[in-house]
Amino acid sequence: MAEPTYEELKARLAELEKQGPKRTGSLEFRIGEKGGVSVYGLGRFPVTLYYEQWIRLLDLADKLREFLEDNKAKLKPKDQG
Fold first, then answer.
1. d(CA 79, CA 5)
2. Fewest C-beta in 10 Å: which of 21, 27, 65, 73?
3. Which bin fits 11, alpha (ψ -120 to 50), beta or left (φ > 0)?
4. Exposed, middle or buried by CB within 10 Å (0-12, 13-18, 19+), for 61?
């Protein structure tokens, strides 16, 4: 099989970059075309909310943590793999 040309490699790289973020285990934030803020790295798909929704969620962070702790026995851990 012949080695790919520079142009073929360049086209393949552009194709891969279009596929989205690489899974590094860290979270990444992006602003979408419609103005929402997306968080990548939590799962297969990004979580996207608008500014006001993020603020409401962050304002309830302590309540959410309390809820999670209170219901920890009922929750399933995400499989790591």
1. 41
2. 73
3. alpha
4. exposed
Question: What is the chain's alpha carbon radius of gyration, rounded to the nearest angstrom?
Answer: 19
Cα angle 62, 67, 70 (rounded to 5 degrees) comes to 125
DSSP 73: G
Q: Is the pTM of this model over 0.70?
A: no
DSSP letter for 30, please.
Answer: E
Q: Please state, in angstroms and as integers, the Cα–Cα distance from residue 80 to each residue in 7, 24, 45, 67, 76, following that order.
A: 38, 14, 16, 23, 12
Q: What's the CA gap between 44 and 41, in Å, rounded? A: 8
